[in-house]
Amino acid sequence: MIDDKAFNELYHPVLIPRTMLKAVKSLLSSAFKKAAGSPLESVLLSLWLNHSAFSGLIERSGLPGHAVRNRYGNALILSLPPESLNRMAVFASKHHRRRTAGVFIWDGDWDRGEAVFRDTDRYALMSDIWENRQDLRKSRKYTELTEMIKRGTPYTEFNKNRSGIYLNTEDKVCKYLEIYLKFMQQLEVHGYDTSLEKDPVCIALDMDGRPVKTAKGLHRLAMAQILGMKSIPVMVRGVHRGWWEKTAGTEKDNNLKVMRAIEHLRQII
User: What b/e string do you get for 18-56 counting C-beta neighbours within 10 Å, with b at 16 or more?
Assistant: First the structure.
């Protein structure tokens, strides 16, 4: 079975300085979360669930997202038709996106944008690969990436789950495209295997309780749509405050608020 480790073959020493820097940042971030971030989030969620004097402020702040997902994890997993996920969440700024990523209740009009998933570069890449699976050298992406080599600017990609990609030869370009093709063929034959994913495919619920795609899992969603899969597992990473207040806000018991919201999630399936 192929997984993300296949991309390690596309590493190059020229990436060492940047990958080392990213590794250090990742270690520091993980150490901070383990030592302070996660425990603090757990305390805040417990204070909210137990109706402490700060529970109103904690809810208005959005509830600690990591702690909510840890506590209610499996209940936040839905099985949805890939075709139902064609709208993208759009944030006004990087600051708004980062701030939103840390909480469970999302403020703002991120669900009112007109971004369409099928217009994204991820969908275009997967579609291009699948259409040209008999000869990847005929794909638009192959032409684009080899042209970058000729210009002296090889394609470079960094990802927290990979060591880095540097496509400085035509063979590496072919390998890069072949890896994605193998992922698609594996998905077609064996179905969706959550044990192979580093992060779940994530969504959020808009003001009306409809699913909106967020940034995590875009390649996998594109593959699932192109292959015509009937359903895939997705995790609800956040919900619009308007939806939260309509579905759960009337409950006086905070634990029941979450249960009420989860009941509504079940109805989406």
Answer: ebeebeeeeeeeeeeeeeebeeebeebbebbbeeeeeee
Going through the chain in order, the beta strands assigned E by DSSP cover 77-80, 105-106, 155-157, 165-167, 202-205, 211-213, 232-240
Q: Which two tokens stand for residue 178?
A: 């072949």
Q: Which two tokens stand for residue 100?
A: 């939103």
Using DSSP's 3-state secondary structure scheme, residue 132 falls into coil
User: What is the C-alpha radius of gyration for the chain, rounded to an integer number of angstroms?
Assistant: 21
CA distance 105 to 103: 6
Give, to the nearest 10 degrees, the angle between helix 38-49 and helix 65-72: 70
Q: What residue spans of 119-253 are helical by DSSP H? A: 121-131, 140-150, 170-190, 218-227, 241-247
| Full-model pTM | 0.89
Backbone dihedral angles phi then psi of residue 236, each to the nearest 5 degrees: -80, 110
Q: Give the integer Cα–Cα distance in Å for 35 and 267.
A: 37
**β-pair type (211-213, 202-205):** antiparallel
Q: What is the pLDDT of residues 192-210, one digit of tens each?
A: 988 877 788 999 999 999 9
